[in-house]
Design goal:
Elements: H1 14-31, H2 44-48, H3 52-69, H4 75-79, H5 91-97
Length: 124
């Protein structure tokens, strides 16, 4: 057996490879799958994608994607006129947003699902 594109060779693994290939060939024949020799094809893409319907859809998809991929947007279109930077929150901001738990729709205990901000994000 001659190994192509393998500089060192596969010493001791030839038997494993040939066993795999022979089992695969038997299974493929049993399932009735016809293997095509792509390496002898002049245009591999036409051999694999032989359906004109599929190829038209593929070209349309690629063209649609390329149109969107290379569109140049102005910064104002993306971000607007005013850039809003993140603002810090202090303890008084957090306390003012809390409820006094006396609203008429309060009839059961509610679990707090928020996140406590890290030390660097809030002012003490």
């Amino acid at each position: 057996m001659k190994w192509l594109h393998h500089l060192v060779g596969l010493a001791g693994e030839e038997e494993e490879v040939t066993t795999f290939l022979s089992k695969r060939l038997a299974l493929v024949k049993k399932l009735g799958i016809i293997e095509i020799k792509l390496q002898f094809s002049s245009d591999i893409a036409k051999t694999i994608f032989a359906s004109s319907y599929f190829n038209q859809g593929l070209k349309k998809w690629i063209n649609d994607w390329n149109e969107e991929a290379y569109v140049q947007y102005d910064a104002k279109e993306l971000y607007g006129d005013v850039i809003k930077y993140p603002s810090t929150r202090g303890p008084s901001d957090l306390l003012s947003a809390l409820s006094n738990l006396e609203e008429p729709d309060r009839y059961q205990v509610i679990r707090y699902k928020g996140k406590i901000s890290p030390e660097g994000w809030v002012h003490r």
